[in-house]
């Protein structure tokens, strides 16, 4: 979807149409969750601090998020997807991979299916979508950004390697800013540079991910589209109005996060074996600390105790803390976890 949250707000409020809009917290320490294309022209981007966004675009209008509305629109969009294929792998509320090799419409051209889906989405929701079409997930993801907004782009098999060669490594899906900087430090700036590296060297510097980088530099990606992909983690975070340094203040911020994580796990019937603490400092440097147990975390009190232990290990903090968060990962169904614990007990 194109600027999904912001586009929904502009659709529902005519006064916002054609104006720079940011969805998120307008307060000084808020963060932009989504920006309209009018705002992006000023350099406003998602995850940008609100104070920076306002500096770039003084006319920026902040709108609070309405997640229930976004979820309902997402359900409408996925219902359209399901008319074409059961192989749908959601990435978020507004993005998914679809495998249409064999499809419910018996349509041989993926480009025609993409055009139909985009038209149906606009007809049903009044919102525009963009599509990337290719022979693997990596290239389809790259292509999806190539004709935004309200467009589509296809990378055919004979075009894949050449398309990748000309891109900066920072444009590769799965390579973030920190990894791109490490690659640049090795003299690797483009897809062509990446392709020239031996796989052993990439694995030496990047571990298992090095094998993935070696493959995508050759436009190879054999990952299938996995329908109903299981959730890998559940997390929550809070941003402080003012920087915090003391344990009691930081722990107080963790309390609501732990409650949200545990409530979600209870509703979903999940338990997690790995607890992770997230801390973001005043300069936006971010660190995480994790602890994995033999069995799943059994209660919110145990999650609290682990989170507090991880927090104490960071004190004294080198600077003020602006955000803390907690997540649970290595998730398993609660029924399965209880069965495992009973078996271990016997």
TrEMBL record:
GO terms for biological process: DNA repair; DNA-templated DNA replication; error-prone translesion synthesis; SOS response. It catalyses: DNA(n) + a 2'-deoxyribonucleoside 5'-triphosphate = DNA(n+1) + diphosphate. The keyword Protein biosynthesis does not apply. Pfam families: IMS, IMS_C. Its cofactor is Mg(2+). Residues 1-176 form the UmuC domain. The record marks 5 as: Substrate discrimination. InterPro entries: DNA/RNA_pol_sf (IPR043502), DNA_pol_Y-fam_lit_finger_sf (IPR036775), DNA_pol_Y-fam_little_finger (IPR017961), DNA_polymerase-Y (IPR050116), DNApol_IV (IPR022880), Rev_trsase/Diguanyl_cyclase (IPR043128), UmuC (IPR001126). CDD domains: PolY_Pol_IV_kappa (cd03586). Binds 2 magnesium ions per subunit. The active site is at residue 95. GO terms for molecular function: damaged DNA binding; DNA-directed DNA polymerase activity; magnesium ion binding. Its EC number is 2.7.7.7. Mg(2+) binds at residue 94. The keyword Nucleotidyltransferase applies. It is found in: Cytoplasm. One of its GO terms (cellular component) is cytosol. PROSITE patterns: UMUC. Gene3D superfamilies: 3.30.70.270, 3.40.1170.60, 5' to 3' exonuclease, C-terminal subdomain, DNA polymerase, Y-family, little finger domain. Keywords: Cytoplasm, DNA damage, DNA repair, DNA replication, DNA-binding, DNA-directed DNA polymerase, Magnesium, Metal-binding, Mutator protein, Nucleotidyltransferase, Transferase. It is an enzyme of class 2 (transferase). Transmembrane segments: none annotated. Monomer. Belongs to the DNA polymerase type-Y family. HAMAP family: DNApol_IV. This is DNA polymerase IV. It comes from Hymenobacter nivis. The gene is dinB.
């Amino acid at each position: 979807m194109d600027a999904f949250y912001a586009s929904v707000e502009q659709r529902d409020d005519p006064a916002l149409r054609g104006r720079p809009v940011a969805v998120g917290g307008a307060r000084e320490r808020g963060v932009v969750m989504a920006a309209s294309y009018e705002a992006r022209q000023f350099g406003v981007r998602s995850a940008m601090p609100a104070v920076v966004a306002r500096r770039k675009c003084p006319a920026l209008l902040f709108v609070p998020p309405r997640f229930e509305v976004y979820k309902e629109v997402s359900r409408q969009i996925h219902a359209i997807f399901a008319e074409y294929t059961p192989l749908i792998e959601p990435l978020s509320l507004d993005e998914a991979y679809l495998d249409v090799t064999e499809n419910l419409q018996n349509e041989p051209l993926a480009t025609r299916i993409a055009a139909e889906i985009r038209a149906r989405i606009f007809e049903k929701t009044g919102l525009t979508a963009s599509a990337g079409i290719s022979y693997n997930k990596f290239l389809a993801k790259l292509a999806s950004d190539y004709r935004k907004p309200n467009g589509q782009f296809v990378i055919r098999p004979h075009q894949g390697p050449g398309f990748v060669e000309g891109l900066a490594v920072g444009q590769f899906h799965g390579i973030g800013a920190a990894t791109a900087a490490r690659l640049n430090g090795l003299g690797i700036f483009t897809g062509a540079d990446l392709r020239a590296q031996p796989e052993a060297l990439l694995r030496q510097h990047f571990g298992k991910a090095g094998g993935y980088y070696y493959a995508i530099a050759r436009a190879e990606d054999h990952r299938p589209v996995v329908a109903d992909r299981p959730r890998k983690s559940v997390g929550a975070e809070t941003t402080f109005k003012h920087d915090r340094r003391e344990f009691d203040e930081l722990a107080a911020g963790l309390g609501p996060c732990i409650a949200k994580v545990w409530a979600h796990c209870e509703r979903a019937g999940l338990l997690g074996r790995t607890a992770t603490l997230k801390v973001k400092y005043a300069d936006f440097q971010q660190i995480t600390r994790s602890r994995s147990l033999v069995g799943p975390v059994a209660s919110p009190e145990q999650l609290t105790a682990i989170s507090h232990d991880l927090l104490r290990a960071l004190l004294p903090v080198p600077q003020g803390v602006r955000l803390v968060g907690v997540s649970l990962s290595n998730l398993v169904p609660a029924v399965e976890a209880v069965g495992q614990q009973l078996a271990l007990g016997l």
